[in-house]
Write a structure and sequence with these properties.
Blueprint: H1 3-14, H2 20-41, H3 48-75, H4 80-103, H5 105-130, H6 140-161, H7 163-175, H8 189-213, H9 217-236, H10 239-262, H11 280-308, H12 318-343
Length: 354
């Protein structure tokens, strides 16, 4: 195939966003948003306990395995020396984040929120790049706005529409180390909320407006539709349910679509493939061993973080304590996911797009 025809195929892929995972992600968020609007209009309140259960099921049972899969795919065909450097850097980043949270839990909370924004935003832009295209994002400023707006919907929109729940669990997250540590900042919440609303609203208008002026077209329409859907979803759905289901139903589902879109262009040395491609029995055994090793490593990190926090359930009952602990833990392991798996591995990172 000539270079010209290969380029044409890549362009076609990036203009094709009909992968079932993309359709599923959009339909799931739309149905949930409309459903919760109707529930609220009917005067029905979803119990907080049920919201916490949904959050834990979504984040632990549904989303965590996908994070391991992303790292596996990234490291699968790498040389062993690279894998060891990657894992070592990952552990250093985790240790640094835990240390920050123990020494300065409020700063750790801010970093945790920033990680969620970065993960959702950077991952979202790379999905667009691989599927519908990013022709309307012509400059670095536009790409930064896209990251901030799409990722900011995860944390900033709930601050505006669900402030009480957001602040309650933020206090519990800080309380894992310093019970009551967020109290001195409580007086500023009434000021923070309108500032966040105004700042995010301006960024949203700037992102959509610049995209339209710099080319518009189909890629802009897809971006604008998805961005507004994200805003509506996090505004309409209670924050615990919204965050708990966003990652498996949107982030993970869309990453599957991106992976399948670029699958034919995988980069790496097949000779170093962790599971190989020979005897199916051997491949299955290797895959099982990698799965077990990953699960044990994740549990070890989880136990280490639990041990490091002086008050790992924030002195709360099990469900709210577990939500607070898991929110911090998943942010801690997501920081190197974003930094090590992307910024420090630009040639072939977690969000690689050929």
């Amino acid at each position: 195939m000539s270079a010209l025809s290969q380029a044409a195929v890549r362009r076609w892929h990036r203009q094709s966003d009909v992968h079932p995972s993309l359709t599923l992600s959009r339909a799931a968020l739309l149905v949930l948003a409309v459903g919760f609007v109707l529930v609220r209009a009917a005067g029905v309140t979803v119990p907080l306990e049920a919201q916490m259960v949904v959050y834990l099921v979504g984040m632990v049972a549904l989303n965590l395995p996908h994070g391991g899969y992303e790292h596996f795919e990234n490291l699968r065909r790498r040389r062993p020396t690279f894998r060891w450097r990657y894992v070592a850097t990952y552990l250093v980043a985790i240790t640094g984040f835990v240390a920050l949270f123990v020494v300065a839990p409020v700063a750790g909370l801010v970093l945790a929120l920033a990680v969620a924004v970065a993960k959702g935003g950077v991952g979202g832009v790379h999905v667009m790049e691989a599927t519908s295209g990013t022709d309307h994002l012509r400059t670095r400023v536009q790409r930064a706005l896209a990251v901030a707006v799409r990722g900011g919907s995860v944390m900033l929109v709930p601050i505006v529409f669900w402030p009480e729940t957001f602040h309650t669990f933020s206090a519990l997250m800080v309380g894992l180390v310093d019970p009551g540590g967020l109290a001195p900042y409580a007086a500023s919440f009434d000021v923070t909320r309108p500032l966040v609303a105004g700042g995010y609203g301006l960024a949203l208008v700037a992102h959509l407006g610049l995209g339209y002026l710099r080319g518009g077209g189909r890629s802009w329409l897809v971006d604008a539709g998805e961005t507004l859907l994200l805003v509506a979803f996090f505004a309409a759905v209670p924050v615990l349910v919204a965050v708990g289901l966003y990652f498996p139903f949107w982030y993970s589902a869309r990453q599957v679509a991106r992976t399948r879109t670029v699958d034919d262009s995988h980069v790496g040395d097949d000779g170093w493939d962790l599971i190989g491609d020979g005897d199916p029995s051997v491949v299955a055994l290797r895959a099982w061993l990698v799965l077990i090793a990953g699960a044990l490593a994740t549990f070890a990190v989880l136990a280490g973080v639990y041990w490091a926090f002086p008050n790992p359930l924030a002195g709360a009952p099990f469900l709210p304590g577990a939500v607070a602990f898991w929110s911090v833990f998943i942010s801690i392991v997501a920081l190197p996911h974003v930094v090590v798996g992307s910024l420090l591995d630009g040639d072939r990172g977690i969000w690689y797009v050929p």
